[in-house]
Design brief:
This protein is mostly helical. It is built from one helix and no strands. Helix content is 96%, strand content 0%. The chain is rod-shaped and about 145 Å long.
Length: 102
């Protein structure tokens, strides 16, 4: 009788060990799956960071171009204003004679 009891206890212990092993194998597979997904997420984050850096560089270049164009526009306006004033001053004596202002 005690031998049957021992065999039953051994069988139960083996069954527990099999369950523990199966559970541990399942947990290991889950961890490997999570690690793979985490690596993919990191890769995607790196790609997104690279694209964001490129977009920021493009935005800065465009901003510089806009600033340069605004500066050029200011210079053109000053030049045009100077030209108009110079022409007006140069033609002032002609206009004064035409209208008879002395």
């Amino acid at each position: 009788m005690p031998e049957q009891k021992d065999e039953r206890n051994y069988a139960e212990v083996r069954e527990w060990l099999v369950r523990i092993d199966a559970n541990q194998t399942h947990q290991t597979q889950l961890l490997e799956s999570l690690n793979a997904r985490a690596e993919k997420a990191l890769d995607k984050a790196d790609i997104a960071e690279d694209k964001a850096d490129e977009a920021l560089a493009v935005a800065r270049r465009v901003d510089r171009r806009v600033d340069d164009r605004e500066q050029e526009d200011k210079v053109r306006i000053r030049w045009l204003l100077g030209l108009v004033v110079s022409i007006f001053i140069a033609t002032l004596p002609i206009i004064a004679k035409f209208y008879g202002v002395d």
